């Protein structure tokens, strides 16, 4: 959640309809028509909005390298003038994701790049996104979305948990879209498999090892499982609503089979070149946007922190932090504040009342860790029964307040009560201790082991597991002197 992008949520429907997230084979087209003027215009209009929602585009040598690999792989798509028609962006986002929009705009986050282990994997991921553009998947999904708007899709996020496809689900779902990873429409599974196949074809044509698509999917699956373990979730996969990708674990074998079917042997990976070029890349949250440390959210610039419930999954977006679990959903954000907490709480409820009035029975005042606070709860009917919608707000200064918006089953103890009570200021020393983590590429020495190198990771727990996933190492795989590996260290 960026310090400078904490304004009340604006409508993202138009942008969202243009977006298409992703990351076996279907019917794969051999070539595609050039990008049309209307497609290019649609992409150009959505591009700056998307950058704002995903942390902005990075610059410098790392971004230039990603752009170079992306444009080189786009040449093999069959699109006319592909090198000049595509815009490739490295996003300053701590989420493992990549996606595309019409007009030749493709994106990957720095976090996903950090998880990769060679240039062929980077080319495979970007090629997958180029495939979506070449096959016009976005346009097909947009047509479907116009029949069932993205707000309805957001409502469906909640339907399996609490709300059904009610108007309330649509309204709260729109608020949930402020978490950056919930902005993108997922492609159908057949479209994802088609893009996988296209990406693998581009890898072969460019001289890369076609197995790279499978290895990066495997790394994603392992990272998902590790994240679930660290966050105390039972499900080893990122929830469907929290990812633009179908489960990568289910696609590894399909990608391997597709790679084998190409008949290509060999192919380059450019591992050392890749690792050298990403050395120093920021890893995890950017402190300027706040950081998620296990169940803790800490924002050193805003001088605040809170603790999410056990087993809940947090997504740190540019406008809000989303907190999601099987027994409820919440988001932490801000809105304009006139110095009156009662009116602030009322205004948040009012913003939800597009189709039915949502008003709290009363607004209670309290103090949380020295912070003036106010909260209210409204019981609302939905297709699946009744739910409780709670707004819990805190005053940090005469002109600044923050709030949680939460949904939980009606009449039950809210799973967020402890989180509401955990909101606190942090002191200057605590804020100063929040420094970025970065990728440090090192060469394995003769006496180095997995355990010894993992001990240098800038984490207090699960160092070996983190090191193995980061480097794509099997559980029994050892290191060889002279090879390059990644560790995560504290930056400056």
Automatic annotation (TrEMBL):
Q: Name one Pfam family in it.
A: Peptidase_M48
Show where the LysM domain sits: 440-487
GO MF annotation: an example: metallopeptidase activity
Q: Does the keyword Aminoacyl-tRNA synthetase apply?
A: no
Q: Which UniProt keywords apply?
A: Hydrolase, Metal-binding, Metalloprotease, Protease, Signal, Zinc
Look up the EC number in the record and give it: 3.4.24.-
Q: What is this protein called?
A: M48 family metalloprotease
